[in-house]
Specification:
Helix content of chain A: 40-55%
GO molecular function, one term (chain B): metal ion binding
Keywords (chain B): Electron transport, Iron, Iron-sulfur, Metal-binding, Transport
CATH architecture of chain A: Orthogonal Bundle
Distance between the termini of chain B: 4 Å
Largest sheet of chain A: 3 strands, antiparallel
Low-confidence stretches of chain A: 1-9, 15-32
CATH class of chain A: Mainly Alpha
Number of helices of chain B: 2
Structural class of chain A: mainly alpha
Number of strands of chain A: 12
Number of helices of chain A: 16
CATH topology of chain B: Alpha-Beta Plaits
Order of helices and strands of chain B: EHEEHE
CATH superfamily of chain A: Cytochrome P450
Strand content of chain B: 15-25%
Order of helices and strands of chain A: HHEHHHHEHHHHHEEHHHEEEEHHEEEE
Shape of chain A: globular
Low-confidence stretches of chain B: none
CATH class of chain B: Alpha Beta
Distance between the termini of chain A: 36 Å
InterPro entries (chain B): Fe-S_cluster_ET
Strand content of chain A: 5-15%
Shape of chain B: globular
Radius of gyration of chain A: 20 Å
CATH architecture of chain B: 2-Layer Sandwich
Oligomer: heterodimer
Largest interface: A-B, 23 and 18 residues
Pfam family, one (chain B): Fer4_15
Helix content of chain B: 10-25%
Mean pLDDT of chain B: 97
Chain lengths: 395, 64
């Protein structure tokens, strides 16, 4: 997708889409009344009335999509398990993945992430102007996820293109070109899985192919969906989280200096960046006609779970509009709430912490280059896609 | 002071384990539980309160 330039996000609580009229025109419903933290929580906790079948809003309703692709996995599995799954299937599909993302498995990856971050900065050369999104944030999660799933690192640009297509394409035309891209992605991942069936590797793809659910091996369609999920959900979310954090630090020299002088404060600051600039809004599908807190909902309506808005609810957070990098009470919902808590949250946190730590160490002083434009993604994942920085000091 | 993780509420955000590893541990699935029957050694009370204040699912309680 071609990058569109939109102005900076100024309202994180009510602006679901800060720039694209196409997004608002095509989305089925945005329940503006339902953005308070307790309502977001109530929806997240109620998979019976709010299904996860389509966590990203699409133009077609699920019943229409099924007519186009009868092989697609319907409820309760969904096309990309477990994020698209509902109980009771969900718990089993999720349990398969949880051990691979537990903190004790993820924490030891710190050194690898540090190496990735340092190399990206080395590759920038001795310049005093960089685009931190293009040259830094966008690469970190792609390289980490590719390594986990066992995909060649040299194909990283292709995955990123697909992520853009899937997540950024809500308002896009259902064009021939888009279908061709989907086909190419399908072929690529199918080949990747076939190669792993023939030659098992020590990676997550082989782990999934070997895993069993209800006493049977996972279907290739299930493995395909989960790999696709890891690529889509693991990449531009974290890329956005790192980007928004660096954008904040470029615009707030006091906070930047505090973290440069005291890197031990970075983990708390990361939680505040996650609260204030939560990158992800998920969607749920209404399972039956009903009234919910006075809002009439129809079967197959989409409901957004605006975690960024919930994170700025004044009933939940003191001074929610203030970004306080030492905020002590911080029950933010950036990784969701309830049974679908982001399974990659430990990995995302590790990547954010290391990315910020390394960046501040190598570039202790930087600021936004105001002669260039900061651009932001559209759709349900929000973060900077261009971050022009002037580098003023090197560590 | 004692802490307790309600395992029916815990969704594995792992905030408690990150903030107070002296008081909490996690199993292979990433679900948290309290160590040492939840007894908070003196000097770690603030860490216990911090864990409570950062649990998105309100799964941790403190008994004085």
């Amino acid at each position: 997708m071609s990058e569109t330039i939109y102005g900076p996000v100024t309202d994180w609580a009510t602006d679901f889409d800060h720039g694209s009229p196409a997004y608002n025109n095509n989305i089925h419903q945005i329940w503006d009344d339902l953005k308070a933290a307790d309502l977001v929580k109530e929806i997240a906790y109620d998979p019976t009335r709010f299904s996860s079948l389509t966590p990203v809003v699409q133009q077609l309703k699920p019943s229409e999509a099924l007519l186009e692709d009868p092989d697609a996995l319907g409820a309760p599995i969904g096309p990309v398990p477990p994020i698209s799954s509902d109980p009771p299937f969900h718990a089993d599909a999720r349990r398969l993945l949880l051990p691979a993302f537990s903190p004790k498995v993820i924490d030891p990856l710190r050194k690898e992430v540090e190496e990735i971050c340092n190399k990206l900065i080395d590759d920038m050369g001795d310049v005093d102007a960089i685009d931190a999104a293009v040259q830094y944030t966008q690469h970190i999660p792609v390289l980490v996820v590719a390594q986990m799933v066992g995909l060649p690192l040299s194909d990283a640009d292709r995955f990123r293109g697909w992520v853009d297509m899937v997540l950024g394409g809500i308002g896009a035309e259902r064009s021939e070109e888009r279908l061709a891209q989907f086909m190419a992605m399908d072929e690529y991942l199918t080949k990747h899985i076939e190669e792993h069936i023939a030659n098992p590797q020590d990676d997550l793809t082989s782990y999934l192919l070997d895993a069993e659910i209800f006493g049977e091996k996972l279907s290739p369609r299930h493995v395909f969906g989960t790999i696709l999920l890891l690529i889509i959900a693991g990449i531009d979310t974290t890329w956005s989280g790192i980007g928004s954090s660096l954008w904040h630090l470029a615009s707030n020299p006091v906070d930047r200096r505090r973290l440069v002088e005291n890197p031990g404060k970075i983990p708390m600051a990361v939680e505040e960046f996650l609260r204030a600039y939560a990158p992800v809004t998920m969607a749920r599908m209404v399972t039956d006609d009903m009234e919910f807190h006075g809002v009439q909902m129809k079967k197959e309506d989409r409901v957004l779970l605006p975690f960024p808005a919930a994170n700025r609810d004044e009933n939940q957070f003191a001074n929610p509009a203030v970004v306080d990098i030492e905020r002590e009470e911080n029950r933010h919902a950036a990784f969701g709430l309830g049974i679908h808590r982001c399974i990659g949250s430990n990995l995302a946190r590790l990547e954010m912490n290391v990315a910020i730590e390394v960046f501040l160490k190598r570039f202790p002083d930087f600021e936004l280059d105001t002669t260039e434009q900061v651009t932001w993604s559209t759709g349900q994942v929000r973060g900077p896609r261009n971050l022009p920085f002037k580098i003023k000091a090197r560590g | 002071m004692r802490v307790h993780v309600d395992s029916s509420k815990c969704q594995g955000h792992n905030r408690c384990y990150a903030l107070a590893p002296e008081l909490f541990d996690v199993d292979d699935l990433g679900n948290a539980f309290e160590l040492n029957d939840g007894i908070v050694p003196s000097g770690l009370e603030d860490k216990a309160r911090l864990a409570v204040a950062n649990c998105p699912e309100f799964a941790i309680t403190i008994e004085d």
